[in-house]
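Task: fold both queries, return tokens.
Query 1:
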Amino acid sequence: MENYKNDYLQYSTSEDGIAVIMMDAVNEPTNLFSWEFIESYAEAARRAIADDAVQGVIVTSAKRDFMAGADLRVISNPPAEGAVILKNLLKTHELLREIEKSPKPFVAAINGNAYGGGFELALTCNRRIALDGNYKFSLPEVQVGIFPGGGGTQRLPYLTGIANALAFILQPKEVKPQQALKDNLIEEVVADKDELMAAAKRYIQNNPNAVQPWDDKKYKIPGGGILTPNGMQTIIGSIGLLRKETHGNYPGGENALSAIYNGLQLPMDRALEVEARYFVKTLNSPVGKNMIRTLFFAMTDAKKGKSKPQGFPEYRVNRLGILGAGMMGAGIANVSAAAGMQVVLKDVTREAAEKGKNHTEKQLNDRLAKGRITPEKAQDILGRINPVTEVETLKDCDFIIEAVFENPQLKAQVTRETEAVLGKDKIFGSNTSTLPITSLAKASERPANFIGIHFFSPVEKMPLVEIIVGKETSDRTLAATIDFVTQIKKVPIVVNDSPGFFTSRVFGTYTGEGALLLTEGVAPALIENVARRAGMPVGPLAVSDEVSITLMLGILKLNPNKQEHHERLIELYQNLAEELQRPGKKAGQGFYDYPAGEKKRIWQGLAKLCPANGDSEKITADVIQKRLLHIMALESCRCLDEGVLNNSKDGDLGSILGIGFPPYTGGVFSYIDTVGIAQFVADCDAFRKQVGVRWQVPDSLRERAEGNRKFY
């Protein structure tokens, strides 16, 4: 028998002829697919293959996860450019193929999340047996701008068929063990850990000459290979669907399709080389670099609370008070109860408070109907929400979130009432999207404990929380608020107080520029379609209807520094909301009509209200796209310049998660780098001459351009 361990795994053999490779990254919280791990894994596998006493190998994990995926720190910060990455990737494939083609069976005994490279490692084994449980199988790489590069695009279609493989690679679909079994990702599910190892041993003993399906010349891909009618139809349909959904902005999906189409016509060794070359091409693209930087590294840091001030112990919220049981308050109550907190949901009437709790009950019933939660768990969550009307019930709360209407006087009133019963060391957070926190804090006797905490609607789906630090907000309060946000599994960014903060301020430039293009005579359908083609989830006119034209009009009227374009917007919004009684979606009419039971459609009267002219016909789709995206990036630069943002990474993350800035860009600052900082400034200067002073470039940005100093 042999036993040894290193920084990546433990290797052992037993008298019954079974070798076990127990993945255990000692310097990481989870196992990661990296060059160093693969070398250690290959060394252990070779020992087992060379040992005549070993019949087969079980690959499992000593950690909670089987493997969390690739170590993106390695592939995003390589020691050299693509040639080195390609060399290492091809070597990885060579080592794994050496193991695959060995005469001894390998079994993946999966006992936790198998993501990305972790699942691809399992695919190289002859059999996959999973422990039943609440964990997932997924190939999520497309979400960070790349695609599975560890053999997933080539091996998975052999097990699941091309169509189902594409669902996992392009969407990306994620499933729990029982569904993974139905989808043919795995071959067996067992109830406990002892049976997991026993089942793996049985397979080894009963299948001494196991061969991978892609190495069996008689094996046929389920549903047909690439060159069958079904295979070609699937690929062609996928190309059209991908183009419709991404508008060609995400090369990862397109390159994955190319790798599948070309690779499945070749022997596995050549197919893996094809995949590797497409993967490196994707990784080295601006989109791949931008998305990995923001949606993996920046997101991971934010989720871990890396922006928390140092020196403060964890602030655990056991009892949360929420003032206002409307849409926002009810949503916050729902996610907080799901995170294990006791929630006191207060409103002025019992009926209103109960209605807020009913929101959670409806959400839970929907999840129950889809089998996503057990009745016991649903009842536990619902039981944590206590609807009340008396302010005294808030006295034992650790944290208060005020979520009443955007009215300074009302917010001041509930602040004073609540602080009268709240512990002096507890935190008071105001959920507001525009009102300055420093001004709201004047109603507080403890402004050091007062902070802004801006949730986005719908709370259950929107991951971002914008934390706003007022002039008197203490570091302890900020640290406690970051702890709370991470406790409810949201993504915090920290900004400093300013009218509109970061997200609302930047979002306002998007809706405003769309409306200004309309006043210049650009066809509304063109504005909306270009916005969606650029990667925005909703066009500026449609989202203005959703926010409410009346609300946007009110905000503009309060702006003390009105510019010429503000007057044009006020005139447009007044015409729509007041004179024509078209205030937005809630009223059934705004920039769009919302006929009952039908799809919304652009109001035909806009052509008369904002007629086309000779100048508007010269405004191309490319110019429209630049104006819509550039204006948000330019305003973000002002936010950074003024100290509203602390760093560019928060701006990138906040712009994507909070206002829907196109993810493929990596966010507003990554977008400027990709356009080219000098080109971006030149574009803004041209727009300044053409359409107004709102395009004035800050001196700091111009200095960056002159020195060619990128944000990253």
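Query 1 returned. Query 2:
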Amino acid sequence: MYTLGGELVAQMLANQGVKTLYTLCGGHIMGIYDGCLNNNISVIDFRHEQAAAHAADAYARLTRNIGVAAVTAGPGVTDAVTAVANAYQARSPMVLLGGAAPLKTKGMGALQEMPQTGMFRDFTKASFTITETSDIPEKMTEAFEAALSGRPGPVFIELPFDVLFNAIDAPALPARVAITPVEPEAGAIARMFELLRAAQKPVIIAGTQVYWDVAHDTLRELTEQTGIPVFTNGAGRGTLPMNHPNCFKSARGKALRESDVVLLIGTPLDFRLKYGIDGWNPDCKLIQVENDAAEINHNREADVAMVADARFVLEALIEGLHGIRYDDWLRQTREYEDKKNAELGKWTALDDQPINHFRLGAAINDFIDENMIVIGDGGDIVSACAKVIDVTRPGQWLDPGPLGCLGVGAPFAIAAQHLYPEQRVLIINGDGSFGFNGFEFDTAVRFNLPIVSIVGNDSGWGQIRNPQIQMVGKERAVASALAPTRYDRIVEAMGGYGEHIDDPSDLGGALERAFASGKPACIDVTIDPEGMVKTGASTPYIV
């Protein structure tokens, strides 16, 4: 029995448990589509390759498995580059399948021929070409192992046209790739116990690795047993419910200034944590748990460092810290958190028109429940909303990650809604970010995926414009203003539901109506361009 290369690619995806392929059509990759139909893999076609690759990123995050996009050669591949870079920074194991000209004409100037694998080598786990159809099972297995092992991340596979359309004897497929968790080194565990048993003010910063290692229940057990305050970061948001009494947001700065031991789990010491230097107690001890050895001692020397599975480390701490509690420190942290939240409450209660960013976030927080996935895609609007929205379960919140890539909203939402049709999916968009991939509402309409976007519309790139005005004055603030476009009408024109809001008292009702419509929907909300400045929350753009 003969098998075509495209069929073999689809069989490998199905063998790994992949249920959906995201794509934009191209002649180079048509053979993969036929294979997907034969192997019960859904094919969702987007209007831009960047969006297709973003959707594969979201699928990977939500399933903790491989997410896959297929794009045609040349411009199809280059259009997906940004999404692959974003997945790399976010530690997401997506695989990009890129079409290529036939090997028999390589270097002769075929349509859309260009060097492709080299572009990805700096921001993927692997980037290579499959040159023999018979090598597809072995090479794709290697790709899956690379993507899922250690620090998860993307892989690029170039598939020439003739490799996909060649026929070979049907091979036996290898076993599904499963990664064995890494045990922590005993000596490092002992040193970690020593530091924490002597600590008076320890904190845990639970990052993306806590999510990938399915360590949320263990994290909760540890903090409830010991009273160690927990701050979440990246995909760690929701690994401890944000309404849990031991989970904090607003007190992080003060906690880092005073803490004597910081247990950092799967969180890079990047700008989000001020590189582990600015605002930190210079005398605090750092315990660093990572799945990426390259992150160990990056920007700050760790007192204890280990490359290990987060759940194993947390389980060891539950045993090793038995009977030890930090109640005074927990109480101090809670008092400061409550004080900061009371100040924030003044902003969330504003009924001004145009609507303040924090007032919008409060309305969203009142509306969401555990059956909703929330996607942040924007600058100031997402920053403000993240301060007031309480995520209560792992995987409930998605955002670009540390690359800060705008445009993930609709693609992430489409992937989430297709994966989980019983859940509601809400995008928090800025008006600028909506413009990147807002046309994917056409995709949502075509596939009957009733995602909802609420757009904070301040007619500008607010995160840039406000600091720009403060620095150079309004008359010299160029390249940061937008038109007051009605994005709800754009979605209506595509066949979705749209509504415009000026009054903050209408926000809850508008959300109800948008989801009740059963259509892809957009709520366009006029927000105050100076809202962040008025509340004192505007900060200079980080460079």
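Both queries returned. Flag for query 2: The mean pLDDT is 96.
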